[in-house]
Input
Amino acid sequence: MHIKNIFILFILLSTTVIAQKDFTTREYLDDPAWTPREHNVDFKHLLLNISFKPEEKKVIGEVTHTFVTIQKQVDTLFLDAPGIAILSAELDGETINFDIIPSGVVFRFKNPLKWKTQHNLHIHYEATPKKGLYFIGWDDPNNLSRKQIWTQGQGIDNRYWLPMYDEMNDKITSEVYVTFDSKYKVLSNGVLLQQKNDKKSGNTVWHYKMNHPHAPYLIMLGIGEYKIKTITSKGGVKINLWYYPEWENRVEKTYRYSAEMMDFFEKEIGVKYPWENYSQIPVQDFMYGAMENTTATLFGDFLFTDDRALLQREYLSVNAHELAHQWFGDYVTARSDAHHWLQESFATFYNWLIEREYYGQDHFDWNRRMAQINSLNASKKDDKQVMHSQSGSVRHYPKGAFVLHMLRQVVGRDEYNAAIKHYLQKHAYGNVDTEDLLTAFHETLGNSYDWFFEQWIYHGGEPHYKVSYSDVEKNGKKYHQFKVEQTQSVNRLVKLFKMPIKFRVVYKDGSKTDKTVWVENQYQEINIPAQKGKEVDFVLFDVNNNVLKDVTFDKPVEMLKSQALKAENMLDRYDAVKALSNLAVKEKMDLFQEIYNKEKFHAIKSEIVAQMA
Ligand SMILES: [Zn+2]
Output
């Protein structure tokens, strides 16, 4: 060995020692649903020919899967098909053997299929599905019920009526021929290529096709007695509004904002609506609110609006949520369940943005407040992070939406939008995971937001701040001093939080001083130089509640009274009113009267009513 080499070895050894000393351990809560499901072929196209015997709740189908092998030797192929009777199967035109097992069917190939070769698997089957596809009203003895057939694929229920690889991580183009009684109309995904009546049989064949790939759980059918109204958004998207013929007078109210929403999202998201058209269809007895099947949102007819304003609001919200999914969920789809938040948090957040357009900033802020309360409550049970398959709907929907709001605050609106646009376009019609989102921000803006994802998405909990305020004098200068302590119990799942927080001092003459500070240590002191001759009216920590958090901040009654009356943002006024709840009624009667008359937002008004009762 040459001496030079020994020297290099020495350097290597010493750097190893140094590096080891510098290692810190990062711990994450494991998620069994992190790993994407394995598959030995890549499914490309699904061609379905389907008819029904509704009185027997029976599906009669013929499906052809076009796939390419992605492993060196493929001698078996499994399809999800629990309870489906496979009648016959052919591979590339030749009959093949298969075994039916409880979860589906295993096809066995005499000669293993070679790597990167394309094949067609053709299957005849019948099913009386207990899930996934529902026959509504066909067995009503009084013949009063509507008669419908509809599907609900998410999470993994399409497999009960359609034998396929039913997993979000392999996208396919789909094409459906439905043969059914001409009395009924049929909706499926994509473009309606043909609708052919056969007078002799009294049936119509409906031929729908998706030109872009989507995930199998988004395949849908909606069949019943409907009329259809077609409108076009300003951006040129055709929107088909399905309705029960006798509900014609409710169409305008229910679907009032559909076209505007389409335009709003195209502008806000910066990516054109990714499909050829968009349909919405109400169905009877739906078990959820609505489902964002690709190009075809299906929703419970209980949301179909009459004159009740509340219901109109409810459908606006559902409508916006499902439409947002056409980008977040359908256009880009989570690779595995661990990343489910990439769909639901986005749909919830973009719904909030639409609601802000129609109902204003206070309403938007109140959505955040509800999210805050629910998140803090959820954290009393466990510290699961947003990115976890089992973290529950509070984390997947409102908490994740609040996190996106914060991300947008931290990054900046234009910057956030640019990164999201890149994220969508880079993964168009594909699968995504949380790292893809993080990477998109880095690729677009050059900044690493790992620290943000670490605390808000990869780890759980929320910051709990204990704040106090006093006027202090240091070296002959006067300051307004805030002391901030993070009191959440820090453990392997919950960290100290780092966030920019806006502090505000409002003076009695109405002027104010703002200071935004990165709060990241367990203890921090923030000093804002006092202004000569100005008296403090009230102070705020985290103006307008932009950070998802719990906070304890005891303020003098006089300060709270001023804050309740004069703070610029609704949530800051609300919090002051709430903080006065222990004050005797006679001490706040006049003030509350004044606020009640001045306030427009319902939450403050009802808080006042509750305290005065
Ligand atoms: Zn959703």
Q: What stands out?
A: Residues 321, 325, 344, 347 surround zinc ion (CB under 6 Å). The radius of gyration is 29 Å. The chain has four domains: 40-224, 332-458, 463-551, 555-613.
